[in-house]
Amino acid sequence: MANKLKTLLPAALIILLVVAIAGYWLTNKPRADRKPTENFAPLVELTSPEIKNHQTSIFAMGTVIASQNVNLTPRISGMVVEISPNFIEGGMLKKGEPLVQLDPTDYLLAIKQKENEVAKAQFNLKLEQGQQAIVKREYQLLGTNLNDQEQELVLRKPHLNSAKAALAAAEASLKQAHLDLERTKPVAPFNAIIVTRNANLGAWMPAFSTGTPLARLVGTDSFWINASIPVDKLSAINIPGINSNQGSLVKISYETGWGVGVYRTGKVKRLQAEIEPEGRMAKVIVEVEDPLAQKPANKNAPPLMLGNYVRLEIVGHELKDVFILPEALLHEGKEIWLLNDQQQLEIRPINPTWTEPGFVYLSKDQLSESAQIISSDLSTPVAGMKLRTKPSAQPANS
């Protein structure tokens, strides 16, 4: 019995110790301090809109084309016996400058012949006028009364009219012969550059040929640029004959050939009647004067070449009192996010007055200058959701 007690006593002591420790921890267990609830409202950045006047610009691409273009064909036939020094491809011609000389021999002979015909007709007219004087005296001496028709025949009036008509015809033929002689020197109808030349010394050039012309000429006083722009941008452009006497100014750049920052200027010339069938774009003609930079005022300007594909910036009308916003502030292309006075998200639809690459322009009735525009991105925006802000705001168009 004594041995059994010795064995159980240590075990009982251990159990009592464990129970005592457990009871202590149960009655004295640590308590976590209560922390204040955190604000999980999204943190956003704000920007402030500014109201300004804005000079609009319309950007487009266009191809340079000729404003004057002609396939020059001689009006008379002849062999080329002389060529102008400027009659080469790329040669520059002044208005009225001859390109070639056709053989004038036949036309000089024709003038001599027509001069003889005129002299003969003049002689016949004078002879008939002498006959008129004779028959008139004879008629007066006879004292015969005749009716008008008989009197005209007796006084040879038909003969006189015929002689006058023959002289007029001979003089017209002589004038035509002189014109034909002048046309042995085909001339440039306007200031031009020779694009193609098709005649050489000894070549026979038929009159009004439907085949190969003498040369193809392009006018150098101005070139045109055929450009396409959105129809909704037309209202901002001055178009002669439609809404203005003078067309809008246009800046033309061609970085591939001219480099960055180099440009020529032109003006809107006219609006074409057709809309592009594919892109539904309006077609506008822009005119550039002195495109080849021949005048002293343009001596440092780059030449504009036919076929160049250039960039246009058309200066449009000025917008008064508009808000200028970066396009990045738009959501779904038609909304902006605002922070209202209750620090809540407001999703506001907008209707841009004008758009340009990277920016939109709003009329002043769509915003207030005190509006706080959210420039941060929100993963799940919900109107009315609580927001937190950073302390400072930058202007919207900075």
Structural summary, described in words:
The chain has 398 residues and is α+β, with helices and mostly antiparallel strands. The protein has 4 domains: 44-54 and 321-395, Beta Barrel (conserved putative lor/sdh protein from methanococcus maripaludis s2 fold), CATH 2.40.420.20; 58-66 and 222-316, Elongation Factor Tu (Ef-tu), domain 3 (Beta Barrel); 68-101 and 190-220, OB fold (Dihydrolipoamide Acetyltransferase, E2P); 104-183, Helix Hairpins, CATH 1.10.287. The chain is 25% helix and 33% strand. Helix 2 (105-142) runs antiparallel to helix 4. The radius of gyration is 48 Å and the shape is elongated. The mean pLDDT is 87.
What does this entry show, briefly?
This protein is of the alpha+beta class and 398 residues long. It is built from five helices and 20 strands.
Gap between N and C termini, in Å?
99 Å
| Strand arrangement across the biggest beta sheet | 2-10-13-12-11-14
Task: Spell out the helices and strands N to C.
Answer: HEEEEEEHHHEEEEEHEEEEEEEEE
Number of helices: 5
- The whole-number mean of residue pLDDT values reads 87
- Strands, total number: 20
CATH fold type of the largest domain:
Elongation Factor Tu (Ef-tu), domain 3
What CATH architecture of the largest domain do you see? Beta Barrel
Low-confidence stretches: none
Instruction: Tell me the major beta sheet.
Output: 6 strands, antiparallel, barrel
Strand fraction: 25-35%
Rounded to an integer, what's the Rg over CA atoms? Answer: 48 Å
Just give the CATH class of the largest domain: Mainly Beta
Tell me the name of the CATH homologous superfamily of the largest domain.
Efflux pump adaptor protein, beta barrel domain
Structural class: alpha+beta
